[in-house]
Batch of 4 targets.
Target 1
Amino acid sequence: MNFFNYQRRKSSEVQIGGTPLGADNPIRVQSMTTTATTDTEGSVAQARRIIEAGGEYVRLTTQGVREAENLREINIGLRSQGINTPLVADVHFNARVADVAALYAEKVRINPGNYVDTARTFKQLTYTDEEYAAEIAKIRARLVPFLSICKENHTAIRIGVNHGSLSDRIMSRYGDTPEGMVESCMEFLRICVDENFFNVVISIKASNTVIMVRTVRLLVKTMEQEGMNFPLHLGVTEAGEGEDGRIKSAVGIGALLYDGLGDTIRVSLSEAPEAEIPVAKALVQYVTAHAMHPHIEGVEAESFNYVAPMRRTTHAVANIGGDQVPVVIGSYFDEARTFDVNLRPDYLYCGSTLPTERLDIPLIVDAPAWTGEENTYPVFMGFGEKNYLPLLAACSAPIKFLFVTYSQCSEEVLACLKTHPEVVVIHQTNHPHRVGEHRALAHLLMHEGITNPIIYFQHYAEENLSELQLRAAADSGLLCIDGLIDGLYLHNIGNSIAPQAVDTTAFNILQAARVRTSKTEYISCPGCGRTLYALEDTIARIKAATAHLKGLKIAIMGCIVNGPGEMADADYGYVGAARGKVSLYRKKECIEKNIPEEQAVDKLLQLIETCENERLTCND
């Protein structure tokens, strides 16, 4: 893999109805209905909305044989209207349902975590090697007849592993790890290969973007070692809704797309399914536009572990670098600004003119204008200024910022950084493939043993905040997940987007990449035909009541498929248990079962208040 130049991974081609996937085909976008699959008219209407928005596959949940059989009617309903978009059946817990769905859908998704293994209970089990092999034999005995049905009906399959629904068997041997997720997938893939069945797509997802990216990287490496090149479906599960869902999806999916991975994507939002499609299309178009960019010469640092990257070793310069969370720099535009208490930039760049009002945020000022004012620090520009390095060396400031491009990192600049540990690099690039040059700069410093912190300057000229959020998250998420970032400076040219919204976007990107927490995090599913309560209204109520609880993770899950599993990473969980019934969790522990929906939000809030008060009392 070339870390600095965009090149799409070569995968095999999978035939899914009349819309093939992988190989040289475009990256496909898709969504999933939220209607009951027994509701033919409603499902057809919603599928049409997804397709009219640009969806190239439509997935429907098939809880039982009745839902699987009704795919035939939904298929007929769409085909009678001249719509030939492939349908995908989503199967959990019942392998017999997959057999039926393969007769009527162009693709069937099965989940290795519950296809043969029982539902996850979080029990620690012990297997001898012989007992473990016997469990694999059970999978083979059940999977092979299904593959035969798929061969006969020209049906593709998706092996879809979710972090939230790994089996107790996998968990007991591998733990809650990327290695366990990959092995869960490979057990099924090896059987497919043995049976000469190659019409297979793979997905391996998590709500945690770091786990999701690392696991897909490990999966690709493992497949390559075993001579496989199956196409990939990408997605961040339970990404949420609104700007948080879009940013989180762009961080995880974008990081993989930039490395050329991914043949189809779904942006899972807790919104109407057709709302997912424009986001997915915009993300794919933005990243793939970098193809054929000017070549970037870069050197991979030997210390970099692509599959499991650690944070780049840096020394601390005040509150920047070392073991500290990445900082956020904002722009000061000589105007009155308000700041959220949890989303205040750590520094403000104010150019050559200090603001007239007194601010309690440290200021960065152009070096020629810096005269040593308290709480201000100079920035030296590397653009067109021949003698900036001698000026930097002569400056007495305890923190100095150096704006530099990758092409300017000459031997003289590298020597200067080695000599001046008080310098923080602010890296700017005008290269069409900005992520490649940002990455190349970090690898160069690692290769040279230079530990000065790096802040990435990401500049845009967007008129629309959603576009800025999506692009900035894709451009910065990879740098966060690779462990290369000590700070982020987002700047948007023009007055169409408020500076505070730009700064908030930076904080949200860092939180989505799990490198800095600034507010409550919500892990909410997108909903489907399995959803057991009014999802969007419930999310809004819970958010309104808990948004002040900085640092908490709250999971809001429509059903049990991924619910308890994804909540292993959450502090509290709200999970659909039956129609109109909800169960509440603290971590992995179910605290109360089958609460009437109309009481459940209030009871969740009572649970959070009680537990958090207890925690604060214990800390005191």
Target 2
Amino acid sequence: MKKILYPLILTMFCLILVFSVISVTAEAPVTITILHTNDIHGRAEAGDGMGLPKMAALVKRIKTENPRTLLLDAGDTIHGKTFTNLAKGESMIKLMNAMGYAAMTPGNHDFNYGYQRLVTLDDQVADFPILCANIKKDGEFLFTPYITKEVGGKQIAVFGLATPETLYKSHPTNTKGLEFINPNTAAGDMVKAVSGQADFIIALAHLGLETGSEFTSERLAREVPGINLIVDGHSHTLLPAGKMVGSTLIVQTQEHTKYLGRVDLTFTSAGVEMKASLISAAEAAGIDEDQEIVRLIVTEKANQGAILETVIGETSVRLIGERQSVRTGETNLGNLITDAMRALSGAEIALTNGGGIRAFIEAGEITIENVLEVLPFGNTVVVKEMKGSDLISCLEHGVSLYPEPSGSFPQVSGLSFTIDPTKPAGERISAVQVSGNPLLPDEIYTVATNDFMAAGGDGYTWFAPAKNVGELGGLDEVLIEYLQSKDVIAPEVEERIRVVYTYATQALESKQTAACF
């Protein structure tokens, strides 16, 4: 009996030991790293951020430390700077391929070349999917709505969401024929679709956290249960440790490669722990740039040389854009730029800061390179609704240092006004007219400006709270399109800005005369 019993007990003990080992193995913590970016806006090279060569090296280092890593992008990536704009987004997609992105969702500015271009990039250039579950055309999804990826033995589901604001935060022709579904409705459908097959659900969203916006990532988190993580963009929000809304973590990296976002997911038998952090450009300073990305940028720039030489127009007069001129008075180039902004946006008024104009153009042929030298910042055109009284405040601010040079000096179209420099700052503007009619303080006007000023830049704080009613592509693209629609440009200074000449000294009067031609 003992001979039979001992082997049986030994066998049972071994089985128990085996099952215990299997149980421990199954419950061992698994860490998955989600790296993320948003609102790069075409900044491939280092500037106010770390740039993609350094970011790529950082991503590579993290993937070496933890191969269970996914790199995601939340949109507004392939438009904004010359490097990306000239290639209509393809140059940026090639860099993202080399960096190993797993997916991106489209931001509103990613539609600035038209949705057909974005579909082409998705189909023919990108090695990763562009995800979006709330845009349809003719009843069909325009992009892949979601993916599931096995990472570290876990099924990670990722679905994309685009802001419905794209319908007016990119030119309306760019999205003509597209249906933008309520993001929360689409997200609810996606959660139902993947819940049975996913261990973790990520919404890759370009919604933002802007106060007053109808659709935000915070509202998504509150109203759609089942989303573990929202990788967000659009509002350029800095979230150093993320933001918990219920059981959902929202993360953003501000903008322009200033930060690389990181979320470490630790799966245990008790559930999943999420820890969000940001790696700053300063922290990445000691990392060598990824040479593959550097070479790709150099090669792409060389290929773009011929595009820069493309002739897009002709001017019979020299277009004045020198610093001293555009920061102290009206110039024909300022007139041309604001006329283009007003014409293509349909706004009643256009206003841009003289400090944003950085070069002149000699009489003769005008090339794309000329325009990019004049407008090098990658700004976009934004249309705001503003009260007449706020417009007057803007003008008063713009001429507050006059006749001293100021980057905030206003170049305008559809608008004329008089400056009296003998009066104190804040009381210098008079005789303001819109298309020949007196400006009414309580009237609402549509005003085209650049996105820097629209956010309150150069001290134009009145723009920031004003209602946004439209966005176009880049300011440089707007000027190029306007030039291509003309035969020969011969803009003169139209006396949109008049000055009361009552200076006490001849020297000051001479300076003013030179400034205003």
Target 3
Amino acid sequence: MDEAPVEETTPESAKTASAKAETHEFQAEVSKLLDLMINSLYKEKDIFLRELIANASDACDKLRYAAITEPELTAGDSDLKVTISADKDARTLTVQDNGIGMNHDELVANLGTIARSGTEAFLKIMKEGDGETDANLIGQFGVGFYSAFMVASKVEVFTRRAGDETGWHWESKGRGKFSIQEDASAERGARIVLHLRKAEEDFLDPMRIRHIVSTYSDHIALPIQLLEDGKEAETLNEGSALWTRPVSEITEEQHNEFYNHVAHLPGAPWATVHVHAEGRFEYTALLYVPDMRPFDLFDPARQHRVRLYVKRVFITEECEGLVPGFLRFMRGIVDCADLPLNVSRETLQHNPLLAKISSGLVKRILSELEKKAKKEPEAFAEFWDNFGAVLKEGIYEESDHRDKLMKLARFHSLTSGEKWLSLDEYAAAMPEGQDAIYYLSGDAEAGIDKSPQLEGFKARGIDVLFMTDPVDQFWLPTATEYDGKPFRSITQGSADLDKFEAAKPEDGADGCAAGAQTSESDMDKLIALIKLTLGEEVKDVRSSSRLTESPVCLVADEGDVDMHFERLLRQHQQPVMGHKRVLEINPGHALTRALADLVNREGASEALEDAAHLLFDQARILEGETLPDPAAFSRRLAGLLTKTLSA
């Protein structure tokens, strides 16, 4: 069964008057899920058996671990296995294990609710996607048991938890309710009986069962046996741990099967990392990089899904410290021969050997990613699309691996278009005299490439990296530089572009026509008037070298918080000290020149004060900020248009 910890220990239930059985209502999400399962038209229904076998295997792993400290739990039945049997006359298919089993409360929790997050996302995918893909995703969302209702009109579970005296019988037709009652016949483990619909009778065919097991479950590291009437039990799989085999003896198909099992993801992995370390300590790791994002990739818990084994005994899937948060997309197993078998989950994180294993894994994974980036840049671009934002968390968190991670990092830029650009490629293309790596923080969907702050850099042929992931705001202040070149935000401080030669604007281009030039003193008067009008609303008003097409823009002063970072903090309701911004004026724009000429002729006026506020509001709009007084903006704009049209 899916025996993950649950958020709600029991669903709302309604007990009947019967003394023998209790009737419970399914959690609302389970009811929705079952409705989709029962009415499914999936072609690949085979996966229900894969999921039941995987759950049975996990139950046996949990018992093997528990028996280390309580050997009496397996007394009289220590050969753990999964058994499949078919009864054509009764039209039932039975999957049985002699693993950990469940008690009453665990039956209610594990088979009545869905604990893991992502249920709503899964339901949405099932409704919107195609059946074949959706069916293969069932295991990823921790709902594998319920796939039985794709083929069964009724499901029964007979189970007894290891060490308990009482057994239980769970039953449901998948229609909103399930019942539980005591059952003295239930043996340790779980026996799941599927009453198949008439249209699904072919799943009782031994040849079909053999094919499903060989296709999906050959890697399971305990025997999967088929019982046929009058015949000796037949073992259908190799029953050996895949990771213990030599690399050369593992086929691509076997890797794919094992990946589907441990990752709960369809298809084939993007990359495989098989490690066997010997020396002062010994461990084996079989890890996979998925070719798609797991649904919980950005869950705040940042929990990895790499399983820890000790001498082939499953210990836990939640071993803190085994894989760092920035590699949480990895799937697979780590098997260590040097950890004690009776190690507890609570003391694992304090074991110094675990830190050494983690360090070795990180180095190997990053090394494999680096090879991929060099040999298959197009494939690496797909990986970066999926996991780049997560990998960059390591630049902030892991100083020991920062250099390698920064070499792997990819960015879009002012000149790269859809192509990903490495920092080495950016540095190699820097023009003479450029001594910093320029970047712009913002939202890709909001059109970061249209930002007015880019105009001066574009005119001078200087590339600018786009920092569009929230994590960029955390690693940039930590990394500070790459290969001796400091990172510099183009929205902080002065642009310092005067040392680069800009292309001369053409007549009539973007409001910046060449022709009669406004004197510097007239422009200074305009800047002084705007500064006086806006007062405390801005930190400063100054002439800009970064603008070529837009009349104004906002920038952060040197040392102040980046504007995009401040917006992110506000969006997440984090405390932030609001910094007043610097308003920069484009002295070559036709609008600012006209305003400067008006100041020179008439001095201060109400019309010029309105223009100052309109320029400031325009700069705010360009930054995607909400205007503090939309009514005042509308009034000033209407007044200006009225005067212009009446002239």
Target 4
Amino acid sequence: MTPTLAKFTVLIERRRLRAILMRMLATATVLAVLFGMQSAHAQTASSKIAADLWQVILAPTTPTLSWAKDVNGTRMVKALVVSNSTDPDLTALRSDVLAKGGAVYFRYTSVAALSVMLPAYQVPLLALRSDVQGISPNRLTARTSSTLEAVTGALSSGVRTYTSATTYTGLDGSGIGIAILDSGIGNYNKAMNDDTGAIRVKRAVDFQKVGDATAVGAKDWTAGVDASVGMIPGSAAMATYESNIDSTGAKLRDPYGHGSHVASIAAGRGYFQSPDASGVAPKANLYDVKVLDSRGYGQMSDVLAGIDWVIYHAKEYNIRVMNLSLAAASTDSWQTDPLCAAVRSASAAGITVVVAAGNFGRNAQLQENYGTISAPGNDPTVITVGSANFKLTTSRSDDTVNLFSSRGPTRSGWTDSTGVRHVDNLLKPDLVAPGNLIIGAAATRAQSNNSTWDYLASAYYSLLVMATGINQTYGETQMYMSGTSIAAPVVAGTVALMLQQNPGLTPPLIKAMLQ
């Protein structure tokens, strides 16, 4: 494309956008005249669009973002469209996305939403639809970056009592499935085995394996595709999709190392090392749902697809707990944020959702930083976990909340038709758990003759690995980690023990009991 033609194309897009904005303003004015003051949740089309998406739509040049790209001279964006339609297939909405020069990558079951790609100037027009509740960019998500048994009370007489290093009586999470949505689980680490050597990671799926488009057989950044067609349970399309995301035989299941450590905190078995680094529920079954890449980042669409997968398989595998030690920097209210809507669906399906609060509790001046809870931790349904410093003792009398631990009130919100922003202001986190210098599994490649370290252990070897003082051997590697990411699986493991004792407990009741 020549420079002259490119400038002409940009000028046309700006004129289109100006016309769209005038239509929005006119629509809002007519509604105000006809109906007077709007109801508490009334929205104009413009207020349905997330602030960071608006910035990209109005920017003079296309910013360098994973969800925005110039394609043949047109600015395209990847977004998540949340709907209030009564049609579960969202047929009309999908057709409109295609008609506007876009593509549909996925239709979710955990939330009435679509993962789409479309021209940026068409986003405001799509927001004019009455069946569109909100449009958010397909933002990045990121990891929120056993003494444990004694500290948490897992060794009390009412929970678990050891008679030797490998035998005990009491609760251990047996039969309960915990889904770990993270950077993967290195199942070759002995922490993921039971006492007989059997691997407790029962399934492994990787939503980073092929990307949001190619996972469903679509070419990335290509318009006119509706890959959601035929994606129903039992269909050939669904079978292909499940095959595409399967990662059971991968040699490097967790190249980053975050997910393996998180999984071992919730359900690791660490009797083979000294000190014992066992997790809270050392016989629970683990389900590896990889949604973060080799540096701990992913897309919201991948996380939503992972939540869908967990809900779909929950009854089949008895997945009763889902741990999300990750977050997205969302300003959307919990009522419309896609991640929040998805975790609410999981909770409604009987899955207790545990989420890390985030590690943004202090600012650059090392002062307390309030209002720093990210999505989906800002949702009232989930158990949002902050980090406690147990001061390397088993006594709780000296415990404190880590300064880095994110704290509320939540500052997400929504904007009404008059332009007034309504902040959610929910009290978060819901509780705290040990999350400072916790020993857990360190991931390596599943080859004893080529057992390269994961990224975290390699990049911060002296701080995370050497500092443990443990003799590191293949299959038994351990490291230190701190953060609300590590505190969350402490609670996830605890929930597994509660459900083992009383399978009839519901997510709201579990949350109330823990609080």
